[in-house]
Amino acid sequence: MRFETKCVQSGYEPKNGEPRVLPIVQSTTYKYDTADAMGALFDLKSDGFFYTRLANPTVDAVEKKIASLEGGVCAVMTSSGQAASTFAVLNICKAGDHVISSSAIYGGTFNLFNKTLRDLGISFTFVSPDITSEELDKLYRENTKCVFGETISNPSLDVLDIERFARSAHSHGVPLIVDNTFATPVNCRPFEFGADIVTHSTTKYMDGHACALGGVVVDSGNFDWSASGKYPMLTEPDESYHGVTYTKTFGKAAYGVKMRTHLMRDFGSMQSPQNAFLLNLGLETLFLRMERHCSNALKVAKHLESLIPEGKITWVKYPDLESNKDHALAKKYFPNGSCGVISFSVAGGREGALKFMEGLRLAAIVTHVADARTCVLHPASTTHRQLSDKELEECGVTPDLIRFSTGIENVDDIIEDIDNALKPI
Ligand SMILES: *Cc1c(COP(=O)(O)O)cnc(C)c1O
After folding, report:
1. End-to-end alpha carbon distance in the chain
2. Which tens digits make up the pLDDT trace of 375-386?
3. What is the CB neighbour count within 10 angstroms for residue 391?
4. Does the beta carbon of 199 lie inside 6 Å of ligand 1?
5. Strand 176-179 relative to strand 197-201: parallel, antiparallel, unpaired?
6. Distance, CA 392 to ligand 1 centroid (Å)?
7. Distance between Cα 328 and ligand 1 center (Å)
8. What predicted TM-score, i.e. pTM, was given to this entire model?
9. At what angle do helices 273-284 and 286-306 cross, to 10 degrees?
10. For the chain, how many helices (H) and strands (E)?
């Protein structure tokens, strides 16, 4: 199947007489004829479902679809994007370990790393995505376990040079984890550029309708966990799970299986079957929507840029603009367009931003991004409110930054809305 066909068809394959549409299996539990049959499931010796915290047929079908869209060997869906980022790191890091992360990441991920996981004993070094390879090289330690970054960062819209970061991580024997939420697998498949693990907040474009929170971690199956001796949790027997050695028993799927049997078992941040059903509806049209998001956003970004000489707009950041510092990277990683999100600022800084936003009619002020309806947010007073000015600067979120999430409406209506809101500026 080609990519678009996978969006529509992969994951769920009904047999003769079964429902054509992915059913919502609203059951926590599954019946077996013998205790032995169920015991084999617990031992991971046969495939099947026994408790929805670990796996559910609706969720399983959507996991298979997302794994195939990203080109990975397996996927684990979670209750939110935050849970996905947490699991992606905790699956291979414990107290005493160290992670190198891009500083251009979602504010929630930054807090998770910088506060919560630090409090659990994992240390983090944050780096600019523009750091040179030589500088990056110097930051690895004995206990470094992974490198983390976002394909296109939310909301600063920096592009991660995936190939360069992957090469660096691999030369130190650690994997690269990439949050691919904004690009989606329609516009970029990080595994093709050497990333090892991909995460998503499926709450955004994948769902696309602002209906269901969700996250996913996808494993490329490409990373050799045994080579360095750094990952005993994968390469040595897990006493909490009948002494299974994940790399020996599950080969390329070791990381994914361990996440399910260990983290999902203990933390229980699973995706609900209802939300998985809604997400699947979104995935069926993802490739159509992304095309429109990108073409609309490019027109809006060019329009905003054209207003700079008049002084109403002070700057515009969108990777597909030729003026963007990351334009060459964007052309390499997203030849068909990056995403629908633009950041910019209007005259008058923070106050100007708030005034402009209040003047919008079609674009709604919401704590959300990347859905079908155009929406807008002022990160410094909302999502990034907890960060200090220094941390804001490190994340590339200046106080005047407006995050504009271009929807799939008629672009002329979006531009008219912007022009009307700019009148009093
Ligand atoms: C929203 C977002 C998250 C967190 O996802 P939730 O589903 O809101 O928990 C993580 N990463 C990125 C890039 C996001 O945009």
Report:
1. 50
2. 999 998 888 887
3. 17
4. no
5. parallel
6. 17
7. 26
8. 0.97
9. 70
10. 19, 12
